[in-house]
Structure prediction request, 689 residues.
Amino acid sequence: MKSDTFLKLIGGLALAFLLPWVFLILIPFVSASNAEPIPYGEGEEVEGGVTAYPDSVFYRHGSSDYGRQIYAAEGCVYCHTQVIRPTYAGPDMWRPGWGGREADGLARETQPMDYTLEEVAPLGYQRIGQDLSNVGHRITTRELMHQHLSDPKSLDPDSGMPAYLHLYKKSPYGEGLVPTPKAEALVDYLLSLKKDQPVPSGK
Amino acid sequence: MTVPQPTPEEMAERASIDRSTRYPVMFFFTSAAAWLLAATLLGFLSSLKLRVPELWDGCEFVTYGRLFPAHMSALVYGWAMQAGIGVMLWLMARLTRNELKHGVTIIVIGHVWNAAVTLMVFSVWFGFGRGIPLLDFPRWIWPVVALSYALIVVWMVPMFRSRRDSPVYVSEMFIVGAAVWFPWIFLTANIFINKGTAPVMGAGIDAWYITNLIYFWMAPVALAVAYYIIPKIAGRPIYSYPLAHLTFWLLAFLAGWTGFSRFMGGPFPAWMPAVSGAAAIFILLAILATVTNLMLTLKGCSKLWEYSPSLRFTVFGMLMLGLYALLSAMSSTFYFGKNLQFSHFVVGMDTLAFYGFFSMTIFGAIYFIVPRITGAEWPSGARIRSHFWWSTYGIMTLVVTMLVGGVAQGGNLAVWDQEFSTSFVNSSAYVVGRAVAWALISYSNFLFLYQLALMFAGKGRKSDGPTLIHAEPGTAPSAKAAAGLS
Prediction:
């Protein structure tokens, strides 16, 4: 009799839990899993031999996958988001460079498949610093990216970013800093952050 | 209105139940309190670094990106969950009128839990974190956490099944709920996130896990405490018992839908944040009903708040739960939410949940439980009073500055043609408030840990009368001296 109460209670809780678990977690997860790239239709011209969205060559090069781990380990997500919201939810698209290459008419909000190369999409927790969805288009050279990491205040005196000096070593030849492999990987990752590849129509 | 007084035999039985829980429960409480002090210090340090980013430049162990997740892990898994587990074990023993068995096993597994938390915090701190809020640890740690949790709470099943009062009291339901909900959400989050085939859903599931941890674990444990302590100290039954049951089932059916509203306009189908937002608004009704129910139970004897430490902490915690549910429903609406997401508001809300309602309620339970299981009274009422007020000042400073600062920062972020760093400069004053708040909370928890350590070491006050925050009015100075207040 009493044990029935226990099983009934657990059964009720399981039933109550199962509904959101199936509809909010399981089905969206399975349907988003291992999505195949969508080929471009006729007349949808894309630069340089890119035939489908998303295209990994379009994004990644160098040791950017190790850089992704450094990005996670240094806790970048606690200050930097990687979400460009549609204009109904915020003015992200209006900030210069945030949504991608406005000049080419390619700026857009972020889409689920933009994150296919991540382990977990680093959408972010807070926005203390700039959104990094398209930082690879805003900062285009390694030198500038290294300067951003090792001495952010030299680029913006009001910047709230600490200097990530532990990713750099003093140069053995006098002045200056030498990036460690971690810093190089992180720069590779940051330069690869471009989320404005055209989405095929009908998607 | 008054409840029947227990017979001497019942008193003796209670004492032996309390004794059986002594060592496991004290183990969880003291190690939790030590983690709490560490977490508050990390909270202070991380806030300081956010205000003065160039401080200790080049030292990798003091960057905000590592201190903040280390602080969150220590606060949630080190303090909140351990203290909660201790409270659950004791309440279950008391309510089912069973002695706690397998105490040694529970203590041994408690050490495994502590080792796992230590590895968690240090791996994040030393640069092995994964950038997933609250699931920041390397992936091999989660089975250890899940297994040790299961091996601690599983002993409550036979206790529940052999309970002597047949109808289930609402606190027991909340404890059973919390006991099974945590493994469900923890396993779901870790299995899906580590499968890694849908990266965007991984981020969404993490947000779901955070709000579920609050509504499916912290709220039930806190409500189990409140539904036990408030009627007990007021000496009268719950104002409306059916309403308490209704709250439980509303929470059970609604909490699992929350979470995705942390990413309004994010790369999810638009219905997901919308459904989560709606669930948060419905939960507000459940929580407001239950807080009102508890306050009506206290109606007419609210003066007890002035004397009883347990009641004072618990009532404060419940009011904070109401505030949390209100703000969470508010920020789930598009009108407020779109500007508040990604601002300091998020930190304010998470801290309001972890410290404001959960920790304060658990302090209430600890002040109630420890004298009963150690057979001694708290050494100093004045220190309890300081613990309460410094904690209250701290958490209110933190919540107010982060909420107001969040509105200000969110407003700045919404001005798209303004330099981005303006939002950082303008909100940095509020971050000072956050650092000050953690300093105050650290101080209050130093007092708490000190008192708890005295009780642990058997250095409590031997007396018949409980330690009160203030002496009862009209009592002689001798009574005041006996309460350790002179």
In short: Residues 473-486 of chain B have pLDDT under 50 and may be disordered.
